């Protein structure tokens, strides 16, 4: 019995010694909060979209006249403004030009002949008028002489110095002079009327001849233009993107020959959601990246915004046309992404957006204090992008804001209180 009691006592003493002398366990380390040091930076507010590069200007080139296509340039050729792109058979147009030139020569000859004949007839009529004017002046003089003779004869007859026959002869001579004057006046008026009518007729004939001459000149100019149009020229410098007609084909104004693209600049048409289109303005900078040129960023400008939206996949979108300057590495059809910079703020205090807690329209951040405690501070925010937000009031450069755990629930901001210690690793509770 004493032996069992001694054995139990030894066992209890062993257990107690172990419990007293065993190594004490290290307390579990407290997780250090993730912080962000407030510094100056920039915030870029962008509206993103994607599309494909296109030539700044494309034109489907068609001939202006109808004929047989003799030749056309090759696809991919770079051409200058005015360079020949295609040529139609010129023979029918050359014959039409020669016929129009002959018609013009005939019209010129006809006008010259009509003018010469008219001037000759006018000269003859003008001479007749002058003769009639002389005859009328002579008749006036003869009438005046007959009048004076009649008056003198009457005085002599009344004085008994002449016979009745002499008076009768004087009266007859005066009457004849009056009739001669009337005849001369009528002849002069007739000559003047004939001259007037001939002048009017000649003017009408000349106008008709001049109209025919003008029409012949227009016909020749049109024939000349049509002959020149058999050579289809580039309206602007560019690259032949595609050719759609073959030599030997009958072509006309409704036949596409080729598509010409102006590559002095490129157009990128972005589709922007209706919720963001109000931010976009003409002239804003656009940063463009391309799948075919990774690591490169090209800068463009917003050139135009469609006034009316289109429904794409049940979402109203608006077309925004971006102009990119020429770069030899760019090609039409390349896939591109564009970021329209609608707002860009530099040299502002910035923090990650996830550091901000928003409650009833107000913003708060948790600031790490020098003693390891935290304090909730209300801040006034400025512009923000997808990741960062500018702080206008409430923080200063160098402050450390506590970042919540990724995916963790946001904490409700508390009112400032006495500092609470932040557990540090390696210390027991």
TrEMBL record:
Q: Which InterPro entries match?
A: Beta-barrel_RND_2, MdtA-like_BSH, MdtA-like_C, RND_pump_MFP, UPF0194_transport
According to its UniProt record, what is one Pfam family this protein matches? RND-MFP_C
Q: Which UniProt keywords apply?
A: Coiled coil
**Superkingdom per UniProt:** Bacteria
Residues of the region (Disordered) are 404-429
Query: Where is the major localization of this protein?
Result: other
Multidrug resistance protein MdtA-like C-terminal permuted SH3 domain sequence ranges = 347-403
Query: Which regions form coiled coils?
Result: 97-233
Any idea where this protein resides?
A: Cell envelope
Chain ranges of the CusB-like beta-barrel domain: 269-338
Q: Where is the composition biased (Pro residues)?
A: 416-429
Location of the Multidrug resistance protein MdtA-like barrel-sandwich hybrid domain: 57-255
Family named by the database record? Belongs to the membrane fusion protein (MFP) (TC 8.A.1) family.
Entries under NCBIfam families matching the protein:
RND_mfp
Identification of the protein by name: Efflux RND transporter periplasmic adaptor subunit
Source organism per entry reads Thermus brevis
